[in-house]
Amino acid sequence: AASPSPPLVFAVFDGHGGREVSAFCERHFVDVLTSGSEWADGDTGAALAETFHRLDDMIDSDENREEIARMTHQATREESKADGKEGEEGMTQANAIDLFQKLLTMNSGAAGSGSEAPKPSSSSSPPPSSSP
Fold this sequence. Notes:
Elements: H1 19-35, H2 37-40, H3 44-60, H4 65-83, H5 93-108
Helix pairs in contact: 1-3, 1-4, 4-5
């Protein structure tokens, strides 16, 4: 019997949590998605919702803070280089302030709080648009 093909996953990590959160999700998404019982049961919708919650918990966990902090530093250096404003230490004052604010948010436990998985639509028609 032939072994099953690996899943093909196409995703957009929009960066609203920061470039480092997008990079973290990109790095861990497929493993988290395919390791859940929902995936094994063939319930793709439930697997995606569970993956959202598991990644949210992983981002908030102390054991992943060092990885995210490294990604924050790397993203900040890349932004500084792209802006042509990199100093001797690889950070601008604005980037240092942004990094500090992100770390404060992470340490306060606010990152990821109140997050919910997207809810699937019960109908195939688009939601009604509001008129001005």
